[in-house]
Amino acid sequence: MAKWGEGDPRWIVEDRPDATNVNNWHWTEKNAAAWSKKKLESLLVGLVIDDEKVGRGEITKIDKCDGDASANNRKAKLIFFYEWDLRLEWKGKLNGSDAEHHGTVEVPNLSDENDESDLDISVQIKSTGAGTEVMKEMMRKKGAEIIRKKLGEYVTALKTEFTTGMILPSNKQQSGGANNVKPTVTKTQFNNAANNLSRMEKLDIGVKLSTLTHNDTQQFKCTAQELYNALTVGEMVQAFTGGPAKLATEKGGAFSLLGGNISGTFQELSPATRLVQQWRLKSWPEGHHSTVTLEFDQKDDCTELRLTQTEVPASELERTKQGWQRYYWDAIRRTFGFGAALL
After folding, report:
1. Residue 22 in domain
2. For residue 172, is pLDDT > 50?
3. Positions of the region Disordered (predicted)?
4. Is residue 65 scored above 50 in pLDDT?
5. Is residue 1 part of a domain?
């Protein structure tokens, strides 16, 4: 067996308590069918479609849920498959009427090949008589719009909630939970990353420090929630940094990554919306932090991330910009495939 730091890095192996999938090298698959059916039921059954000018409808049951779903891990990159044929039952009443209408909603192809916003959703009504077409039209327009959003929430949950723990740590788990485990990384790889970040002269303490602000905008082919998770879920941070990471993801909680070369605390956490950190490089004057504000804006085909970093030492601004690009943005796209088309 190859020893730590010797030989071809692809063959470097560390002990794992479960003795499986070292380095996340092998393809692993997790069946998401049962989880998906429960998730779809929780999102759709009881869903209210309310139009104050027309009436009110409600999804009463999932009459058909045929298909399959899975999540796959290959070299710490997650790949998803899902394909569902759904039929929902609904009931509703028009404003000022006691007559109850009943019908169905068909979703024939909810899959990883289709964007949820373009799903073909058809509505049928079983009732006859006055008001049926008005009720059907409300469900066809307002109802389909709301159902699409809920199906989008299912896809997001599949890629985030369901996959927790799929990117496995590759070293013996230390006390303090999953966020403290060390994934496998070659000694050379880790030292290179750490040294590149810390290759800065120490700034003199006791003199006035000149600082600047770093602004940046990046686009990622993923949802805002996926990108937020990549920056706050310990296992995902470890995956894209390629080394140990400690995160207490709560207000006031501390974080440390890349061998302690980056550290700080979380000041504000608004999932999929806004993340504020006190952030510093190890080589900065002791006690000096910048404030990093990350704002997530999910658009139709991507998520736009806006970064504002204040109080950056002026002499280190350019190197800080390069560090964000190399060790965060490029690494996240490469690790999770967020440079590819949004599923």
Report:
1. no
2. no
3. 97-118
4. yes
5. no
Asked whether the CA dihedral 18, 19, 22, 24 is positive or negative, the reply is negative
Are residues 96 and 205 located together in one domain of the fold?
no
| Domain interval for residue 86 | 28-159
Name residue, tokens 């000096």. 288
Q: Is the pLDDT of residue 205 over 60?
A: no
Q: Mind listing the pLDDT tens digit for each residue in 136-171?
A: 999 999 999 999 999 989 988 888 888 765 555 444
Q: Is residue 193 part of a domain?
A: yes
Q: What is the CATH number of the domain that holds 103?
A: 3.15.10.20
How many other C-beta atoms are found inside a 10 Å radius of the C-beta of residue 309?
21
The model's pLDDT over 214-265, given as tens digits with 9 standing for 90+, comes to 999 999 999 999 999 999 999 999 999 888 899 999 999 999 998 888 999 9
Tell whether 124 and 224 lie within a shared domain: no
Q: Compute the Cα dihedral for 139, 144, 145, 150 and give only its sign.
A: positive
Classify residue 96 as exposed, middle or buried by CB count within 10 Å of its CB (0-12, 13-18, 19+). exposed
Tell me which amino acid residue 225 is. Answer: Q
Q: How far is CA 76 from the centre of its chain?
A: 14
Q: What distance in Å separates the CA atoms of residue 14 and residue 169, rounded to the nearest whole number?
A: 10
pTM: 0.45
The reply to whether 5 falls in a domain is no
Residue 212 sits in the same domain as residue 263:
yes
Residues 100 and 189 in one domain: no
Q: Kindly state whether residues 274 and 331 are assigned to the same domain.
A: yes
- For the chain, how many structural domains are there in total? 2
Going by C-beta distance under 8 Å and a sequence separation of 6 or more, which residues neighbour residue 318? none
What whole-number distance in Å separates Cα of residue 181 and Cα of residue 235? 8
Tokens of 65: 């849920």
Distance CA 84, CA 319 (A): 47
The pLDDT, as a whole number, for residue 179 is 43
